[in-house]
Amino acid sequence: MKLIGSLTSPYVRKVRVVMAEKKLEYEFVVENVWAQDTSIQTHNPLGKVPCLLMDDNGSLFDSRVIVEYLDTLSPVGRLIPQPGRDRAATKCWEAIADGVLDAAVAINIETTKRPAELRSQDWIDRQHKKIAAALDSMNKSLDDQPFCMGVNFSLADIAVGCALGYLDLRFSDLNWRSQYGNLQRLDEKLQARPSFVSSLPPTQN
Questions:
Q1: Contact 74, 21 (CB under 8 A)
Q2: Cys staple from 12: which of 5, 85, 99, 180, with CB 3.0 to 4.6 Å?
Q3: Which domains are assigned to the chain?
Q4: Number of C-alpha atoms within 13 angstroms, CB side, residue 184?
Q5: What pLDDT, on the 0 to 100 scale, is given for residue 205?
Q6: Distances in whole angstroms, Cα of residue 124 to Cα of each of 44, 52, 57, 183
Q7: 139 and 182 in contact (C-beta within 8 Å)?
Q8: 3-class SS of residue 73
Q9: Are 116 and 137 in contact (CB under 8 A)?
Q10: pLDDT tens per residue, range 139-167
């Protein structure tokens, strides 16, 4: 398999962490989707990463789709529960963590890709409110549990860890640790895992 992505995309990192935890072999192909000569749309018509090229030359895109598929490839360390309430809860954790990413990436694009005279501070502030509300909700839901779903490490933790890592990468002045102690405790455990260490964006090394 080949994984097409960037070294700083948190969605790509989520897939890379899953592949490491599942002990799956793959080739990582770095792609800059903002470059004029990008070829990403050959495999994903939406022009986004991550994109997984499978051995039969088929492709999967969207991190949620990819990680669900990857979890079926190996019995090692199942990350998504079988259908039922726990599975739905795990996917909800992933959804809220991805919501943090969606808002954070939107802010980053607005402030780095859009001309200054066209930027909307009201819109940026709206995204920041989404991030704050999501962090508060996750912090309360985590409570004193060792992991998002209780005692077992799962996709929920991977999604949350990648979201928090992206906030550290792009919004170092946010200082979320001072407000969300439960998330800080979880993050310390996650960032020490080899799967997270090996997927750190270059500017965090």
A1: no
A2: 5
A3: 2-70 (3.40.30.10), 85-193 (1.20.1050.10)
A4: 7
A5: 43
A6: 28, 31, 39, 24
A7: yes
A8: coil
A9: no
A10: 999 999 999 999 999 999 999 999 999 99
Which amino acid, 76? V
Mean of pLDDT over the chain: 94
Contact 111, 124 (CB under 8 A): yes
The whole model's pTM is what? 0.95
Do residues 162 and 93 touch, judged by C-beta distance below 8 A? no
> What is the dihedral sign for C-alpha 132, 137, 140, 146?
negative
Q: What is the DSSP letter of 150?
A: B
Which residue carries 């993050």 as its tokens? Answer: 187
Dihedral angle over CA of 82, 86, 90, 91, nearest 10: 70
- The pLDDT assigned to 55 comes to 85
Q: What is the CA radius of gyration of the chain?
A: 17
**Which residue's entry shows tokens 């964006």?**
201
Give CB contacts under 8 A, 24+ apart, made by 138-146: 138/93, 138/96, 138/97, 138/180, 138/183, 139/179, 139/180, 139/181, 139/182, 139/183, 140/182, 141/93, 142/182, 142/183, 142/186, 143/182, 144/182, 146/189
Which of 58, 69, 83, 93 is closest to 18 using CA atoms?
69
The residues near 64 (Cβ < 8 Å, ≥ 6 apart) are 91, 94, 98
